[in-house]
């Protein structure tokens, strides 16, 4: 079973899937709440599709390693692919994640942002670096 680390659950749960990926890609460069949400849009879309390459590119290298280690997987991509498969076989869980996205409260703190995790305590942290937002923990 896939181990849901805090930042993966929150990221999957808090993305807004209403914007297009192209719009999200452009907004990711904004150092605003819209930029953080755009990152979540891209991440959630990738996770729900099982696209590990895209989803993992939205995580810092450290977060990629944490995710792989927590799931006893060789890399981030394998974890995301497994998460996508699990969500495809559980439409109710996927719908729950999408529903949460519309309600998530994101707090912006300069070059960092936080969003509460879905179904567990803690927060997902985002970092603005190199002109883009990334999930960092």
Describe the fold and architecture.
The protein is an alpha+beta fold and 137 residues long. The protein has one domain (6-135). The protein has seven helices and four strands. A four-stranded antiparallel sheet has the order 1-2-3-4. β1 and β2 (112-116) form a beta hairpin. The longest helix has 17 residues, at 33-49. It is globular. The model is unreliable at 9-22 (pLDDT under 50).
Short description:
This protein is α+β, with helices and mostly antiparallel strands and 137 residues long. The protein is built from 7 helices and 4 strands; from the N terminus they run αααααααββββ. The chain has a 4-stranded antiparallel beta sheet with strand order 1-2-3-4.
SSE map:
Layout: H1 6-14, H2 21-27, H3 33-49, H4 52-57, H5 61-70, H6 76-88, H7 91-101, E1 107-109, E2 112-116, E3 123-129, E4 132-135
Antiparallel strand pairs: 1-2, 2-3, 3-4
The chain-level mean pLDDT equals 82
How do the SSEs run, as a string of H and E?
HHHHHHHEEEE
Largest sheet: 4 strands, antiparallel
**Helix/strand class:** alpha+beta
| Strand neighbour order, sheet with most strands | 1-2-3-4
Number of strands: 4
Number of domains: 1
Rounded to an integer, what's the Rg over CA atoms?
A: 13 Å
Number of helices: 7
Percent helix range: 40-55%
Distance between termini? 21 Å
- Shape by Cα distribution: globular
């Amino acid at each position: 079973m896939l181990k849901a680390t805090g930042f993966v659950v929150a990221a999957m749960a808090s993305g807004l899937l209403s914007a297009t990926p192209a719009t999200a890609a452009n907004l990711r460069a904004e150092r605003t709440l819209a930029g953080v949400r755009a990152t979540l849009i891209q991440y959630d879309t990738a996770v729900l599709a099982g696209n590990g390459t895209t989803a993992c590119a939205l995580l810092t290298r450290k977060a990629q390693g944490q995710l792989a280690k927590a799931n006893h997987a060789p890399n981030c991509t394998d974890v995301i692919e497994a998460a996508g498969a699990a969500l495809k076989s559980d439409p109710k869980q996927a719908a729950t994640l999408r529903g949460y996205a519309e309600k998530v409260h994101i707090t912006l703190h300069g070059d960092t942002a936080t969003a509460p995790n879905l179904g567990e305590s803690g927060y997902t942290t985002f970092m603005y670096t190199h002109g883009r937002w990334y999930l960092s923990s």
